[in-house]
Amino acid sequence: MSVRTAPIAHPVDGREIAVARPKHVWRWVAGIVVLAVVAWLLWEIVANPRLDWSIVGDYLFDKRIIDGIWVTIEISILATVLGLVLGVVLAVMKLAHNPVLRWTATGYIGFFRGTPLLVQLIFWYNLAFLFPILIVKIPFTETGVYWDTNAVMTGFTAAMLGLGLNLAAYFAETVRAGIQAVDPGQSEAAYALGMTPAKRMRVIVLPQALRIIIPPTGNEFISMLKTTSLVYVVAGHDLMTNASQIYKQNNQIIELLIVASVWYMVMTAIATLLQSRLERRYGSDAVRMVRKGGVADRLLRKQTAPTAGVLA
Amino acid sequence: MSERSERLDTSVVIADQVRMGFGDVEVLRGVDLEVDAGEVACIVGPSGSGKSTFLRCINGLETVEQGSLRVLDQQVGFELGNGKYHPWSAKRFATFRTDIGMVFQRFNLFAHQSVIENVMCAQVQVAGRSKKVAHDEAVAQLERVGLSEHAHKKPHQLSGGQQQRVAIARALAMHPKVMLFDEPTSALDPELVDEVLVVMKALAEDGMTMVVVTHEIGFAREVGDTLSMFADGVIIEHGRARDVLDDPQHERTRNFLASVR
């Protein structure tokens, strides 16, 4: 609601009479009360004699913390990529005609959404109890590659697998919704032009589903940045693990949690910024799915260029 | 396949007692129809009479459940081998459909592609043509429908009539042997109908075999060779388009024609 400031003419003599500003007494009261409570809470923390801010400063750029940040980013990116790719596969399986594929995808999604992420992480980390050796070999021969499970399943790989496989289960539903939101007429036209079901999916449906799928992927990644902190139970050497290892030595628990929080907030802020860019690019209706520098892009630019008459 | 089509008689579509339904509802209840090469076969009838469903059977978007439907000398959906008809694979269907162009009521242009990409897409992805060949073909087809200056627009920037003409160009770029039109002007504003009909008429004059489901009686009279009147899943009247329109024999045909005029 806008506030009127322009004077109003008097009905009888037409004098311009000023309009008084509204007072909003209760707005001021509510604002002051909330400010006071928040200020008091902050003061209790900031000025707490048991909290040593110099330690926060000391550790903010500690090598272990900085290393942990990079591992957190690395795990987040790898797990998100794994989750996205597997999520698309699961979504396509869930929409398949083959009932075995459908049930498998449904079972996978049910299992990974139905069990806590923490349990899954610990499970992957302790995979060696079930399978001491990982083998990839040609069936019925001895030719193949063998790994010691404990050597492969480090905190890092367990974290990446656990987070990625878990995200895939959630992401599959997003992708499925995106695929189903594409007008069935698009598929019919693709079939009528002689496309196979797979080609129709890849060339026509998925590129259009992306418009619906991409915005939530930003949210998934942002939430992944923070979910990686769970990795501390399997010692993934991420930000949270390293912070916890420091406070286990010096007992400055709150100080190091503040250090970790500052960095999580910085990462989230940057990711949010990137996400809003991504959404501006893909969220709009006039989205150009043509990759910059891709074949179609070059083709189109050549066309519009005044000198190039034919495609060389 | 080409070997067989050499000795193909002139019929492009031969439907013999074609039946199909959705669940309990029988949509086609014994359709007989022959469409010759170069013929413009118009199909009219009230909504729900099965005319669109029949058209979709011709390129295998719907499956015929009983009777026989032969298109371009192939039993649609089935291959004869070892004394049995074996259902086609998805790939076999795809190959079959490259010879059949289809134009939809709602245009169905690929929304994420520009006009020229729409016309090039199947040429490159399905026919395996090079980008240059596909591009030249697309430009030629867009010229044919009078839209070459819109090549770089997105479908949503075009009017309905323009979108439908792009859809026709997209189908023609695959060099189909027969074109199916499923109420191509029904979703258009009245003032945009003619520009589409003009393109279709030119196509008919070029000798294209066409099966056209339409409510445009004027088009059927002027361009159509034959006309089939669908009602309740069967063809109740069939003959030369002009004959049926000028002197309908069946009472339902008379009533229907009176209602759409």
Automatic annotation (TrEMBL), chain A:
Membrane topology: Multi-pass membrane protein
Transmembrane segments: 25-43, 69-96, 117-140, 152-172, 253-274
The protein's name in its UniProt record: Polar amino acid ABC transporter permease
A Pfam short name: BPD_transp_1
Source organism superkingdom: Bacteria
Entry annotated with the keyword Cell membrane: yes
Gene Ontology terms: biological process: amino acid transport
Lineage of the species this protein comes from: Bacteria, Bacillati, Actinomycetota, Actinomycetes, Micrococcales
Family: Belongs to the binding-protein-dependent transport system permease family.
Localisation: Cell membrane
Keywords recorded for this protein, A-Z: Amino-acid transport, Cell membrane, Membrane, Transmembrane, Transmembrane helix, Transport
GO molecular function per UniProt: transmembrane transporter activity
Coiled coil regions in record: none
Annotated ABC transmembrane type-1 domain residues: 69-275
Natural source organism: Flexivirga endophytica
GO cellular component, one term: ATP-binding cassette (ABC) transporter complex
From TrEMBL, chain B:
The ABC transporter domain, residue ranges: 12-257
GO CC terms: plasma membrane
Major localisation: membrane
Gene Ontology molecular function: any one: ATP hydrolysis activity
Membrane topology annotation: Peripheral membrane protein
Keywords per UniProt: ATP-binding, Cell membrane, Membrane, Nucleotide-binding, Transport
Subcellular location: Cell membrane
Classification via Gene3D superfamilies: P-loop containing nucleotide triphosphate hydrolases
Any Pfam family hit: ABC_tran
PANTHER family assigned: AMINO ACID IMPORT ATP-BINDING PROTEIN, L-CYSTINE IMPORT ATP-BINDING PROTEIN TCYN
UniProt-recorded name of the protein: ATP-binding protein
Originating species: Flexivirga endophytica
